[in-house]
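Open question from group meeting: does this chain pack into something compact, or does most of it stay loose? Before anyone orders reagents, we agreed to write out a predicted structure and look at it together. Recording both the input and the output here so the notebook holds the full record.
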Amino acid sequence: PEISYSQIPKIEHRFDSQFCPNCGMKIKTNISNCPNCGTDLGEEKRFQCPICRSSKIETSVKCPICGTRFHRRCFLEWVKIKGTCPVCKNKVDESIL
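Structure tokens returned:
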């Protein structure tokens, strides 16, 4: 059965804080590097999750098959419901994520 993006539960977004996609540390939105691990957040700000279409900085994960990057929570929820990658449509085993 097909589902749409709107059927994926909305992820709670808070405008005052974001999280480093590398180490998970809570960070301020106006900094260019994570103070904990040094991740360049400038590149992260250009990333847009293909599922929720948000550019919010949070932990990301790549599809193990096609390598497309997603917000981790979006991708896990999608795979839990559909069992496939929303981009390449290949079956994804939730246990390897």
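Observations to bring back to the group:
The first helix runs from residue 41 to 46.
Confidence is low (pLDDT under 50) at residues 9-16.
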